[in-house]
Design a protein that fits this description.
By secondary structure, this protein is mainly alpha-helical. The protein contains six helices and four strands, in the order H-E-H-E-H-E-H-H-E-H. Helix 1 runs parallel beside helix 6 (about 95-110).
């Protein structure tokens, strides 16, 4: 996760942790989250050797991915993560705001059910 996004995603990660999610992060993100009171399990980046984050994804140990990048090398390094997420149909968010909104939506849905209504029900008033 790029450094500037870490403070942005913190509330979403805290919300997920409070609702029973195990937080897994690499290097600097793991350090940042731990320093801010989030219980986090550290995992290697792919370049750091096995077992690494892609191994965890392929083993079924990851259910949701927040991965923001900055710069060409970071984007290139995240390619195996994106590929694994796509192949295994794991939700994958590449911006901090989308990550936070996804986290808050997951938390909201754990406390109440989703109500589905047809669009027409919003316009059922007779206009004469």
């Amino acid at each position: 996760m790029k450094d500037g996004d870490k403070p942005v995603i913190l509330p979403g990660v805290r919300a997920l942790a409070a609702h029973g999610f195990t937080i897994v992060a690499t290097g600097g993100t793991a350090d940042y989250l731990a320093a801010h009171g989030v219980a986090v399990e550290r995992v290697n980046k792919v370049a750091q050797g096995r077992p690494h984050i892609v191994d965890r994804i392929k083993d079924g140990g990851i259910d949701l991915i927040f991965n923001t990048t900055e710069g060409w090398q970071s984007l290139k390094d995240s390619s195996p993560i994106r590929g694994s997420a796509l192949a295994l149909k794991i939700p994958y968010f590449t911006t901090a705001p989308a990550s936070v909104e996804a986290a808050l939506a997951i938390v909201a849905l754990s406390t109440r059910s989703l109500e589905v209504r047809p669009l027409q029900s919003y316009y059922s008033h007779s206009h004469t």
